[in-house]
Write a structure and sequence with these properties.
Length: 105
């Protein structure tokens, strides 16, 4: 408080205590600023890493999307070929019974 347990030596003593307290507060603020700066630097680095990974993932996604489109086109081509073959296919049914009818004894 205003009065300390030890005897004051005058205004100079009060000034010294005030300067010491202000210096400690300034040092605490400087330490907090340095810690904040370090955290900001770390967050910026992590953000950069995420952006790089995001670009890498986007490239991989685009690559896979293109591969999928290619496979879908291939399947569509094969489906068309199968439809053409099915349209041009004629089944010939034969049986022993049919052979017996045409057979001359």
């Amino acid at each position: 408080g205003i009065r300390d347990a030890q005897e004051s030596r005058g205004l100079g003593d009060v000034y010294k205590r005030q300067v010491t307290t202000e210096r400690a507060a300034a040092e605490g603020l400087e330490a907090a600023k340095m810690e904040s700066d370090a955290q900001i630097t770390n967050l910026k680095r992590r953000l950069g890493d995420l952006e790089a990974r995001s670009a890498e993932v986007a490239g991989e996604r685009d690559n896979l999307s293109n591969q999928l489109k290619d496979r879908v086109r291939e399947v569509e081509v094969w489906r068309t070929r199968v439809q053409v073959v099915e349209a041009n296919t004629c089944l010939l049914y034969t049986s022993d019974a049919a052979d017996d009818l045409l057979c001359v004894d």
